[in-house]
Amino acid sequence: MSWKEFLYFQKSDRRVLTVIVVVMAVALSVSYLVGGGKDTTTVTEEDSIAVAPVGYGGYDSTRHRQWKGQKRGYTPRPPKYYQVEGRVAELFEFDPNTADSTQLLRLGLQPWQVRNIYRYRAKGGVYRQPEDFARLYGLTVKQYKELEPYIRISGEYAPAATLVPERETYVRDTLARPLKLQPGEHITLNGADTTMLKKVPGVGSGFARRIIRYGQQLGGYYSVEQLREIEGFPVDAIPYFVIGDIRLRKINVNKMSVNEMKQHPYLSFYQARAIEDYRRLNGPLKSLDDLRLHKDFPPEAIERLSPYVEF
Question: Are strands 251-252 and 241-242 parallel, antiparallel or unpaired?
Answer without folding.
Answer: unpaired
